[in-house]
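Input chain follows. Return C-alpha cells only.
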Amino acid sequence: MYHNPVLLEASVEGLVQNVSGTYVDVTFGGGGHSRRILEKLGEAGRLVAFDQDPDSAANVPADSRFQFVPSNFSHLKKFLQYYNAYPVDGILADLGVSSHQFDTAERGFSHRMEGSLDMRMNSSNGLTAYQIVNEYSIERLTNIFRQYGELVEARQIALLIEKNRAQKINTTTELAEVVAPALPRGKENKVLSQIFQALRIEVNHELEVLQELLMQSAEALKPGGRLVVISYHSLEDRLVKNFMKSGNFEGKVEKDFYGNPLCPFTLVTRKPIVPDEQEIEENSRARSAKLRIAEKKA
C-alpha cells in the first residue's frame, strides 16, 4: 500500500459540509483521503488535489470531478484560480511523509534502511540532505538540529558530522554511524528520528510552505468553509493551532476597536482529534497524528 490514510473518517467528515461543493486535498499521496472525499461528494461536487512527488501521479483516480495538480501546495491560490476553482468549500492537509516515501530506501527518509541522503519530497528540487550534511557549517547544522529536531544534543551532533565528513557522508547508514556517540542509550531510534526529521524539514522548507498554505487558506476558503489539518510533530501542530486560533503564528489574538477578535476562523475542534488504539495498532505511523478543524467566519 502506497499510504494508509490517517484519521480518514474524522477528517473527511469534518471537511465535507456541502456535497455539491469544491474541495482541495493539498497532500494527495496515495489518494486515500481524496477517494473518500469523492465518495462523499455528489455529481456537482469537485475535488482538486496537489502533490509535488512525481510518484503520486500513479494514484490519480479516473473521475471527471477530480483535478490533479503536480505541484507543492504553497502554490494553492494560483492553481485554484487557474482551474476556476476559487474560492473553495474546504481544504484538507495531511502533513508529513507518506508510507511510500518512508519505505522507499533510496529516498533516504528513514534511518532504518540504507539509502542515499536525499530526503526530497520533489526529486527535481536542488537541495538534498547530502548537501546539508556535507557542506553546512557547524553553526548552521546546530541551528537546524536544535530548531527542527528540538535536540539538546544539537551541537554535539553537528560536531560529530563535521569531524567525520572529510571522506563525505553518503548514506543514511553512514550518517547514523557518525552520530551514534551522541545518541542517549535507550533512545537511539527516537533521537535518530529527530535528526532525520530536522534534515527533512530543512531540505523541503516544510515549515515555510506550511505557513504559506495556512495564510493562503484564509483567502481561498469561502465563508463557512473548513480548514482540516493533520500534523505529526509539535512544530507543525503549533503553527496550525496558533493560526486557527488567532490568524497568526504567534497565537496572540488581536482585537478590533470594539474588542472583537480579528481571527478569520472559528475553531470546530477545541482540542485535537487523535487516533484511537485500534487505528494505532493497525497503523503505527498514526501514533503522533493530531487533527484540527477550523471554519472560516462569515
